[in-house]
Amino acid sequence: MKLLFLLLTSFLLSGTAIPQEDTSVTFNSVMHDFGDFGISDGPKTHTFTLTNNSDKPLVIQTVITSCGCTVPEWTREPILPGASGSIQVTYSNDQGPYPFDKMLSVYITGKSKPYILRVRGVVHQKKFTLEDTHPVVMGTLRLRSREMELGQIRQGTVKTDSVEVINTGRYPLFLKPVSSHANLSVSASPSRLNPMEKGSLVFSVDTRKKEEWGNVLYTVRLLINDKEDPFHVVTVKGSIKLNTSGMSRSEKERAPIPQMNRSAVEFPLTAAGSALEADFVLSNKGKSPLIIYKIDTSHDGIAVAIPRTIAPGSEAPVKVSIPGSVTGDAGEVIYTISLTTNAPSRPTVNLLVYGKISP
282-335: per-residue pLDDT in tens? Predict the structure, then answer.
């Protein structure tokens, strides 16, 4: 049960902060993937370009990296309105063979928070094959992964990431990603891949277009040479949470404060196919109504009965029902319930029901 306990603890404590989007300064990209390369290939360099969309000159004050293995150089003179500057970063490639993902914090005059850029890649001791580095096959197109995990996304912000692709065929390949989701934009860079040329699928989730909460799953169809195949699909996952960056101190002081009587319930040894139930109590210790925006569960079929609004100083029962159709797998199991709320102190309330299912 030790592994189960560690998984429970990790789930209950998970959560990260994400800076808010500011369109007065835009970058040509916020992440660069160097891909796979050898430790003997030497340093790797990439240049980010930023554009001043405001009506005043701006200055890049400094760029701080998360590791001494990444060295930045940037435009020192003022960047006029409509003009562009650059940030060049060099990865020293002297840290040994391992995957890396380094951050750069870009501080600009007049901005209270830095812009975050990333460089990543995988360094190998020996050369790896395309089958190792790009295991997903779609005709002559190979991808690193079929799933993109964007993690937490704050409401009102934009989050971008990418996945590397390569054309392994003998002829040029034209790639067109298609998605019907309002908040998701995706592009191929470049859209034409010559034989053995690498490119990227770039995904951006813009929560300002349509209000969504909690776990989201978007699908993207990949048209290769204008042909559609039902198996040529990738997914983009994320979790949209409350954005507290614009809240005043008084708003936070008057905000709702969710408090559970317990965060986990362990059930006794239960036969496969048996229904389970777990009861919790959710209290609002704050000074304004607590709103439950979204309820997400780890398994389809789990039902959660809870009021969507809880008044200040009030409490409400939370009843979790897990039908027998869900408890069909033997062994140690964890059923998770995530409540997305309007509470800045606890935008996500995680509940767990766990135990062992007998054959």
Answer: 999 999 999 999 999 999 999 999 999 999 999 999 999 999 999 887 899 999
The hierarchical CATH code for the domain 2-14+248-358 is: 2.60.40.10
CATH code, residues 20-128: 2.60.40.10
Residue 39 or residue 307, greater confidence: 307
Question: Beta strands 348-358 and 331-341: pairing type?
Answer: antiparallel
Q: How confident is residue 8, by pLDDT bands cut at 50, 70 and 90?
A: very low
Tell me what pLDDT residue 22 has: 63
SS3 for 163? Answer: strand
CA dist., res. 316 & res. 305, Å (int): 10
Neighbours of 326 (CB within 10 A): 19
pLDDT grade for 2, boundaries at 50, 70 and 90? very low
Distance CA(64)–CA(204), nearest Å, equals 25
Confidence of residue 124 (pLDDT cuts 50, 70, 90): confident
Q: What is each CA distance from 229 to 138, 143, 221, 284, in whole angstroms?
A: 9, 16, 8, 50
CATH 2.60.40.10 for domain 129-244, yes or no, is yes
**Amino acid at the residue 291:** I
